[in-house]
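Feature request, filed as a ticket because there's no other form

It would be nice if the structure record came with a short human-readable summary line next to the tokens. Right now we just get the raw output. Example of a typical job, pasted below so the devs can see what we mean:
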Amino acid sequence: MAGARNGPDPPLIPTALLGGSFNPAHRGHRRISLFAADALGAEDVWWLVSPGNPLKEGAKDMAPLRSRLESARQMARRSIIRPTAIEQELGTRFTVDTLAELVQRYPDRRFIWLMGGDSLAQLPLWRDWRRIARTMPIAVIARPGYGGFTRAARAMGWLRRFVRPASQAKHWTKWRFPALVLLRLPPDKSSATAVRRANPDWYRSMTSTPVRDPVTRHMID
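Raw output as currently delivered:
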């Protein structure tokens, strides 16, 4: 029959998403990303380098987007990590809108949202945070200094019923949403704040020319 498909559809590409300012990207970002990718069986990790974080508006030490993307590209070298400033192209300011747009734009991928335990504690401050959990699974990586998941009592009050065992993490592409998996990573004290404190002008060493986005292939100036 004309137009009939030959064989089954290709499998969806399991892709983990880590959002942030990456001001600058540092080894902690890389470490938790590769740890999560291994635990989840993800083939790609996209770093969503935010044009502007609504919870950090007015930050005086926020470097230009181009510099932060270049910092992320350098930190992601020789890995499955792909930094992108796609939020600028999408015109989204809030995570809930960005994730919805990505699901629509990339039907060949299955996404899971990565976040640190500290971000989980702030999740109820995010716009439509419950809709985020209904859009894709969430993997939370415990970070040192935040008391594990204990500070996220408000978020976990609703999410607790959707927690999946870490031993089943590689099966997340088959989960129904909401779904949450808690991953524990040995401590790493790397932080963007420490990098900026040691070198406030770190971004001046980045390129002053436009940077090509590894995902969209568009130039970021």
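Something like this underneath would help us a lot:
The chain has a mean pLDDT of 85.
The CA atoms of residues 15 and 44 lie 5 Å apart.
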